[in-house]
Amino acid sequence: MKLACQPITLDLRTTFRIAHGASDQRFNVISSLAAEEWIGYGEAAAVSYHGETQAGILKYLTELKNTTADSEKTNDPFLIEDFLNQLPQGSQAAKASLDIAQHDWIGKKLGLPVYRLLGLNPQNIPETSFTIAIDKPELMAERARAMAADMSRLNGSCAGNNGLRMPIDAPQRSSACACNCPTVEGAPPFAPRQSPRTVDGALGG
What is the mean pLDDT of the chain? Predict the structure, then answer.
């Protein structure tokens, strides 16, 4: 499979502000794997607090060119595990994008969406979360309400008893959190009974 990659800049609708900082753009990378007449695409997210940068992802993928990972003769596109296992140490985001691209290629080759390729039922989608960025309380509440109909958990940012309170009518509030917010940002989202009693608890304080 022939490998290619290119940077992509994502302009966010609103400023995304969490404990790690604020941003108005995301700098990701699109990877592709081509064989026969099909091209599979994947995307690598450059999340700085996971040690990933757009430049680092591009460097990793570029260095794979002209190796066994970039050869139509040596790679059977259906051998996903073999392909991933031969990749050198380095950017996990880059590897994930190639994993996605290979699944995309196989789905296109067979004329199947990836969920059917994996034998998954789209009616039984696992729970996920959506982060409400730190902002004025009324704006946070508005965004939370807009998402509440489709989300069972909201990963909102809260400032504890000394900061803002969030008047968000979320489907599930954390009964343990002192601020009565949906869940506490600063760590992976918690189910209601798992939420720490304070924001300091969520951040290890």
Answer: 76
Paired tokens of 82: 């073999």
In terms of domains, do 40 and 113 share one?
yes
Domain count, the chain: 2
CA–CA separation, 190 and 144 (whole Å) = 16
In order, the DSSP letters of 100-145 are: HHHHHHHHHHHT--HHHHTT--GGGPPP--EEE-S--HHHHHHHHH
Between the alpha carbon of residue 192 and those of residues 19, 142, 154, 181, the distances in Å are 21, 21, 10, 10
Radius of gyration of the chain (CA): 20
Output the CA torsion sign for 87, 92, 98, 99. positive
Q: Which domain holds residue 143?
A: 126-205
> Angle of helix 54-64 relative to helix 92-110, nearest 10 degrees?
60
Q: Is the pLDDT of residue 102 over 80?
A: yes
